[in-house]
Amino acid sequence: MPLAQSARWQPSFATPIWVLSVGLLLGAVVSAVIFGLLAVLSFVPGVGTLADRPRRGLTASLVIGAGIAAALCGIYVPQAGEYAQTLYLPLIVIGLVLGFALVYGAWHRTRKEWWGILGEGVIPYLLSTAGVFAVIGLAVSPLVEEPRRILASVPDVNLIGDGTQVEVATVEPSNEGSQFYPADIDYDFRSVAELRIQSDKRVFLADGEDPASFSRAPLELNPGASEAIVYRYEDREQPPIPRDPSQLHIYNQEIDPARVVFTFKNLPQVPQASTIVFTAIAFFLTLAALLAMRQAAPRVWALALSTAKNEMAQPLYLLLLALGMFGVLLFGILPFHTLGDDIRLYKDSGVTLIMVLGMLQAVWSAGTAVSEEIDGRTALTVLSKPVSRRSFIAGKYVGIMLAVLVLFVILSAVMLVVLSYKPIYDAREASQAVPVWQVGHDELVTTIPVLGLYFMETMVIGGIAVALATRLPLLANFLTCFTIYVIGNLTSPLVASASENTELVGFVGKLIAVVVPNLNSFNVQAAMDAGNAIPLIYLAAAFNYLVVFVIAIWMVAMLLFEDRDLA
Questions:
Q1: How many CB atoms sit inside 10 A of residue 289's CB?
Q2: What predicted TM-score, i.e. pTM, was given to this entire model?
Q3: Are residues 502 and 433 in the same domain?
Q4: How far is 437 from 417, CA to CA, in rounded Å?
Q5: What's the rounded mean pLDDT across residues 76-102?
């Protein structure tokens, strides 16, 4: 009996983890192939030595990156509608990352240093976490539900466009009795999620060229938008047209040519297969960004590497990591008594715990890596070498955030595994039917963007902590960051309430909103509690705010640090 019960819920638990694992494996394969090709190109004269001169390598990276960014903007911005402007900066950043990764990935020094790159700093921790997660996914492969069908849907994932395909058939009048003409359009009905057929003439749709070959009666289509035929796969109705495009024939009984428009909405047979593709893309972009930073900014990377290794070796880092794992696991089995909505509270508690631990680590690291080095004159020793103050601040910030990134990734991986089982656990506790695996998958893919937003918020607090650490000791820095965090999450409600009061109150509220970062932009607790997915356009808008704020706080940090007496 226990084995039978276990066999019922194991596929629902294993399949979401397997989908993410396949995405990580695909990302690893794609990365290996692309960087392998770049390594081969490094033997080509003029290509492998392009980055030998820093200025030439920088110029080539910017030119190639600008070209890639322009292509990405040309493809995706027109599809964003009224929010098109929010996509420009993220796409430009992606283009520049790819530009630097291509130029420095084809550098002859990169080819010789690849094994060292994969084994230094935070990269082994990130790869190890991804590897362990992938191994878990492969281990549960025998329990996965319809793995071949999921993999067969991967090529149907739309990376360009929203899957809309428009085919137009021009049909001549059928003057010879009941002559049916071939439609001569192309489509693949395996991936059709929705279909709309509209005509400007009265026509008939059939699955053969003559009545003898019909398998069903022809379908009448009258002119006008109100007479359009609409088909949805989810309704499980019979399609209005044959699955084989060569069988589709149209009869036009009027005297003028008919224009029949077929609008297909194509989605993979298993829509969750898109998670595999986007996970692979995220994996590749992360590795490309780390490679580009290491090779293009070696001094900043050396400082970041030293800072990250030092902070990750501290007892506090290990303590926070252990507390995070314990909390994430405990919340998974802790009854919240929310009348069947425990999973929402678990997600809220889990991501908030990870963010708080990350912020604690960021502020503490800013105090130890910046304040104490300045007070202990270690910074003076570093700056006596060919390292500028700008590189020092940038390296410290990048190193701190890399250490926090590892913390986020490890705890997030544990949380995702628990979250995959949470719907099953709640259903069994309530003596309900075991949910399908798509439920667990949806919980995972709606949580990952929230983790990304909370990491952005941690980056904001980390930037403030590094800037303040150039002047303030650890305790004062911690209290200031805590105050900014509280006020920053109240900025939007404060401005809204201030607008209803006197002009002076409104002015003070708006002034606070300008001086203090609006951290409420990264807070999506209401959407998460409602079970709503975070749209990618919102992530792009939050990323825009993050980039602008980090640049601004870096400039403030330079003003505070530029005239600081280190002796």
A1: 17
A2: 0.86
A3: yes
A4: 13
A5: 89
